[in-house]
Specification:
With 53 residues, this protein is mainly alpha-helical. The protein has 3 helices and no strands. It has one domain.
Length: 53
């Protein structure tokens, strides 16, 4: 099984409170954090919006 197949099987459910979502949005908006932290915030927000599947 290749990387793409394993990646396609991963399902993530992310539930964030309004406060958590606001904090992540602030980190992204300011752009003053480490690149890794900003990328992680982007991924969490994207997973939250997309939902499972």
């Amino acid at each position: 099984m290749g990387y793409q197949e394993r990646l396609a099987m991963v399902k993530s459910v992310v539930r964030l409170t309004e406060e958590e979502r606001a904090a992540l949005t602030e980190v992204i908006g300011k752009g003053k954090a480490a690149a890794r932290k900003i990328k992680h915030a982007n991924v969490l927000l994207k997973l939250m919006r997309r939902g499972p599947g």
